[in-house]
Structure formats: structure tokens, C-alpha cells
Amino acid sequence: MNFSSSLENVKGVGKRSLDDFHQAGLFTVSDLMNFFPRGYEDYQVSSVISDLKPGRVTISAEVESVTNVAKRRGMTLTLATLKDSTEKIQAVWFNQAYRKKQLEIGKAYIFTGDYKFSYGKYQLISPSAIKAEEMTLTTSDKIVPVYKAIGGIKQKLIIDTITKIKPLFSVVPEEMPNEIIKNNDLMALSDSYSQIHQPDSIELANKAKERFSFDELFCLLMSSRLNKDENNKLESYKMSFDLEATKKIINNLPFKLTADQKIALWEIIQDFEKKTPMNRLLQGDVGSGKTVVAGLASVQAYKNGYQCAFLAPTEILASQHAETLNDLLSPLGIKVGLLVGSLKTKAKKELQQRISNGEIDVVVGTHALLQDAVLFRKLGFVVIDEQHRFGVKQRKALLTKSYKMPHLLAMTATPIPRTLALTLYGEMDISLIKTKPVGRKPIITKVHTPVTREKVYEKVKSELDKGRQGYLICNLIEDNPDNERKSVLKEYENLSKTTFKDYRLAVMHGKLTGEEKDKIMSKFLNHEIDLLISTTVIEVGVNVPNASFIIIENGDHFGLSQLHQLRGRVGRNSDQGYCYIITSKTEALSKRLKVIEKSEDGFYLAEEDLKIRGPGEIYGSQQHGDLNLKIASLADSKLIKRAKNAVDFFMDNNYSLDDYPELKNKVKSNQKVTTLN
User: What is the CATH number that goes with domain 444-599?
Assistant: First the structure.
């Protein structure tokens, strides 16, 4: 048996369990080796019940009684009375009715869970349970790895299967230069596999996790470094800068640029003057004026004889960008065209012809821009709005519509902390717009409990009566009996007949087609809808200047960054904007939600989210998953810095990836995911 052997060759893996392994993407011994535990149950430290203190505890106790209790909304509580020689305690599980069959009366088990005050008394909350007599069969050292559930496979089978392949751990080849391992005090790779799957102590398990996390971050940062080096070898169109003409344009604008906008524009213009293609990310909060900066940058391209392509994720957003850019650029004689899928065939062909002969200077569009039929006369500048919403292939398709590599400006309204940006966008230069346009009022944000919901409704009704519009956000489409979170369909049904029966309501959610969502947003933009009840699909989208309020239900189930993004949908003009966040519970408000009441700094909130909830809340779980990070945390700024220094050491000391084939394969794989060129 070797690393590439099929799991069916491992003793004890039958056909049914093999199918379950395959469903989880595990086919070979190597796949299983890299299927890391999500945590551990430490059964080494046991307490007697009479000595328990609040926190994580492990006890050995006998089951005296166990019962299931049905609660409202389909909730089931499993209650068990546990006893040892000193005292009795109650254990409780939520929606785990199978525990009643699992726990045998009179049998001793090892329980590990949180001991805390709940429902008026101390209880053991949702503990794991292993028969005391089976402990030696599970693991000899009583530190039990806990793996992500795989189909119908029991944890014990995963552990047993890994035990059978354990001899291979000792012959795992090292993937990193010895000097880097030594300088960073890293565990050897072979030892890391042993200690992460069958640790001798929690400390050694953490040390193994550190090694795998370091390796993942190293590969990611190395791929970014190589992408940047490759980009610097490419040739682009060098564009000269006319300072006086630019000053004239800026001075004639009907508004003042913020200091951040001026700096970002200057950084872009400086990139244009280089022979190598610009590869820049423009970060800015919702409504910070990124489109204006991109538009002014396109003036420089136009003056040098080049066209600009502006890619947006939806038709309605593309239409809005086209309108903004036309208002900005048409006084300068710059022709703006809009190319979207819904355009009639004749009009589309005419526009494509005008693009190819150079009559259109700035082309705004959706995926329709990527079609083979779309040819540019001289494409020199590409802008991608919400670039993480486009796949690598799509971005490349647009960038290849030019003889030389055009300059690229990617934009995102998601404020990304520096450490996260370093790993996700390491190959890109980054410009920040933190300040909001002049005249924009801070949004008044208030967190409410369900008790004060009616007060919120009265406040937003007064806004509706002034002719304003707003959103009501729920994170479910339909009611779910397993939780008490609000759903858009139920809220629409209730509110359209009661509180808001005199107003025009509509529903929007992710199950609607793109065309249906665009139609609803068009109606909302044209004020044919007063209150839009929606899921978070409105998070990145159309600017509706007349929208003055947003109500976010079950706000405690959202990350700070997401709440901030949603809040940014309102207050898009000089009028006052309001954000009302309603929690799920009537208890005191969390510190986390109090933070968003006081701060409108998206970058600060993103930093807090990174600490609390991880990068998925900021960057989006899909994209984070694309990077295939199994164990590393992008919130670990110290480890990221160490990995970055190790990459610099590797390159500066002329190490070659060819000498480390496994490392090379991982780096090359990451390059394909992260590269924009």
C-alpha cells in the first residue's frame, strides 16, 4: 500500500463505506491522510460531578434516566440524569433524539461538554458520549479526534481506517527546505501527520496543525509572488499622463473628489505610465465613489487612444454604471456603450460593430462582453466590478481581447483587512477608499430586540409616508420549523395584510432567476415598490438613492461585515439613512452588535469579523473554498507574516520548486485559482 492506493485496499473499508468516502471526495490513502480532524475530545482529564466548575469538562458517569421532550416548532430536547459516586447532574441535547437509544440505563459513559448555567440550573450541554468500556478500543491515549461527518460512517471507522494507514506517516517525504523548518520551529511533516490524527497531547496536535497551516499559507503566498513576477514580465500599453488636462477635468466636476479618491486615481495613473500591465485592486465601502475613480482613469486611456471595458455582475448594475459613466464622460466627447444579454440581436450586432471599429470608447457590460463576437479595436484598460463574483476563466477571457495585456483594475465593495488582502490578493497592488463622498450623512444604526419591533415599524412608516423606500431583510426564504428565524415569504404574507397593507410590497430571493431579480430591482429603482422584502441578494447591487431605511431581522445571525454591506444599501444621497437591526432574542444586546451601532468604518468591522467569525464572512465562503484551505486560518496574521517571510527567504536564497515536487504541485494549483492574468 502507498499514498496513491485506493481506500478500497484498506482492510475494513466495505462497499457502503467506500461510497460514503467517495461522496466526501476521499478516494486514496493520501486523501484520507489530508482529511484533518475538526477538533478533539480530551478524555485525559476527568472530574467528579461534585467538583465541576463552569466551562469545558469531562466526567465518567452512569446513566440513571433518559427521555425525549417535544417542544414548540419541532424542537426536541433529550434530557438525561447522570450520576457518579459524588452527585447527580442533568445533561441536555437539542434535536438529538437518537441519544435516547444510544444511552443505556445503568451503563457508564465518558461525557465531554460545556458545563454552564442554563434554564435556571447548571447543566451539561450537548456532551459527546463514549461507553467507558469502549474507550480503549477507540484510542489508547484518550485524546479522540473528531472528524467532519461522512455519510453514514461512524467516527470509530474513520479513526480505525486512519490507524491502519498510520505506518505510511513515517515515510512521508519532507516538502519544505530544512532551513525554513528550522527557522520557523516547525514540526517535521511525518510527525505532523501522526500528531494531527493520533496526538500524544493537545499541545502536539496544535503544533501539527501549525505545520499544516504554515504550509498552506506558504503555498498561497508563493503562488501570489510567482503570479506577480509573471505579470511583471508581460508588456502592456504605456500611457502618458496629461496633468493639466486631468486637473481641468477634476475641477469641472459637479462634486468634489475625496482625498482617498484622488490618491487612488493618482496610483492608477502612475501604473499606466509603466510598460508592465497594472494589476490593481480598488477597495472601497459601498457608495465610496469607486466608479467615478474608474471613470476618470478611463479618460487617461481615451486620451492615449485606447478603449476601456467595464465588466459588471448583473444587467441592472451594468446599466447603472453605464449611466454614471455617460454623465461623467460624455461632456468630454467620450462615447459610452452598454452591452448586455437582453439587447436585441440587431442592436447587439450594431454595437459590436461600433466597438470593433473604435467608435465606442468605454464599453460597459455583463458576461455578454466575454463572447467571441465582441472584438475591440484597441483595448487598453479593463475594469472588473465585484471581481470575486467572476471566475478565473471569465476574467481571462476578457483580458485576452487585446494584442498586449491590458491594464486591469478590479473593484470590490467589501472592505478587506490587510492580512486577508495579503493572502487573497498578494499578486495585486491595492488602493483604498475609506472616506465617503462630501455631503453624505452617517447612517443612524440602532439595534432592537423583538419587543421593540413595532416601534421600528412606526418609524419606517413615517419614512414611507415621506415618499421614501426601504428594505426588510430576512436570512430565510421559507419558514423552517427547526428554527425561529424570519423568512421573506412569511413576512411578506403577514406584513402585506397588516402593518404595511397600505404600501406596495415585493419579495426577492436567490431562487428567482437573474431576469426576475433584475425586473424587481428595476421596479424598485423606479419607485413602483415601497418596501422590498428580501434575502441578502441585495447585498451587492444597485444604487437606489431614494432608499432611506433597512430593517435586518435576526441580525445576530449575520457577521459584522455583512451587516455593514447591507447597511450600505441606504443613505446613498444627502438624505438621512437609517438601519434597524432586530435580534432573535429579547436578552441584552451582544457586544458585537453594539460595535456596529457605533462604527461605520467597514475596515474596522471587517477586522473584528475576521477575529470572531473567520474570512468566509468577509470574502465569501465560495471563494475561500476555491483556495482549498483545509486548516489554515486567514485570521492568523502572525502566521501569515511568518509564511510571507519564508517565501521571501525561499526566493532570495535561490531555492527551486523543482527540488520540491509536492510543494511545486500545490503552488501551481493555487496559481490557477488566484491569478488574474
Answer: 3.40.50.300
- pLDDT single digits (tens) 563-586: 888 888 888 777 899 999 998 876
Tell me the three cell numbers of residue 579.
438601519
pLDDT at 406 > cutoff 50? yes
Is pLDDT at 622 greater than 50 in this prediction?
no
C-alpha–C-alpha distance, residues 219 and 243, integer Å: 42
Specify whether the backbone of 372 is left (phi greater than 0), alpha (psi in -120 to 50) or beta: alpha
Neighbour-count burial for 405-419, b at 16+ CB within 10 Å, e otherwise: bbbbbbbbbbbbbeb
The CA dihedral of 192, 196, 200, 201, to the nearest 10 degrees, is: 110
Distance separating alpha carbons of residues 555 and 438, to the nearest angstrom: 29
Taking residues 382-400, what's their average pLDDT? 73
Architecture of domain 45-140: Beta Barrel (2.40)
- DSSP of 523-586, one letter per residue? HHHTTS-SEEEE-GGGSS----TTEEEEEEETGGGS-HHHHHHHHTTS--SSS--EEEEE-S-S
Beta bridge partners of 338: 364
3-state secondary structure of 512: coil
Q: Check if the beta carbon of residue 561 is closer than 8 Å to that of residue 412.
A: no
Q: Which ranges in the chain are annotated with CATH 2.40.50.140? A: 45-140
Task: Quote the pTM value.
Answer: 0.71
Q: Which fold has domain 243-273+289-412?
A: Rossmann fold (3.40.50)
- Considering only CA atoms, which of 50, 47, 61, 137 is closest in space to residue 104? 61
DSSP assignment of 4-70 equals: T-BGGGSTT--HHHHHHHHHTT--BHHHHHT---SEEEE-S--B-GGG--SEEEEEEEEEEEEEEEE
Collapsed DSSP state (helix, strand, coil) of residue 282: strand
Q: In sequence order, what are the beta bridge partners of 471?
A: 532, 550
